[in-house]
TrEMBL record:
Lineage top rank: taxon: Eukaryota
Record-linked PANTHER family: FUNGAL SPECIFIC TRANSCRIPTION FACTOR, UNNAMED PRODUCT
UniProt region (Disordered), positions on chain: 1-25, 85-107
Protein name stated in the entry: Uncharacterized protein
């Protein structure tokens, strides 16, 4: 017979928690055209893919500031077009409903 350590056999009753919100030092602000300011965490902006799914830019943290500004300028324009296309497709499928991420989680 083997004896078991009670600490290894008991399960944790508390759920695992997310890390605390980051401080202001982890937040980055980029201003485009001197008028629009965008605030990001270290993950960078959200990309709307052509099929409507969302993703992030994998190498955002390694980009130089000028690369980030250029990427953001292109991304903002592309995301607007892709969101408009998704709303148009959704409008044809179900008339009257707006595109919303929260609709996917409702049961």
């Amino acid at each position: 017979m083997s004896s078991r350590d009670p600490e290894t056999t008991t399960t944790t009753t508390q759920p695992l928690a997310l890390p605390a919100p980051s401080d202001a030092e982890d937040v980055e602000q980029i201003t485009l055209d001197g008028t629009r300011t965008f605030t990001f965490n270290k993950l960078g902006p959200v990309v709307v893919n052509s099929d409507g799914t969302l993703s992030r830019i994998a190498n955002w943290e390694q980009m130089a500031p000028i690369e980030r500004e250029t990427t953001l300028r292109v991304l903002v324009a592309r995301n607007k077009v892709r969101l408009a296309n998704q709303e148009k497709q959704q409008g044809q499928a179900t008339e009257g409903e707006k595109l919303s991420i929260s609709n996917a989680f409702e049961s």
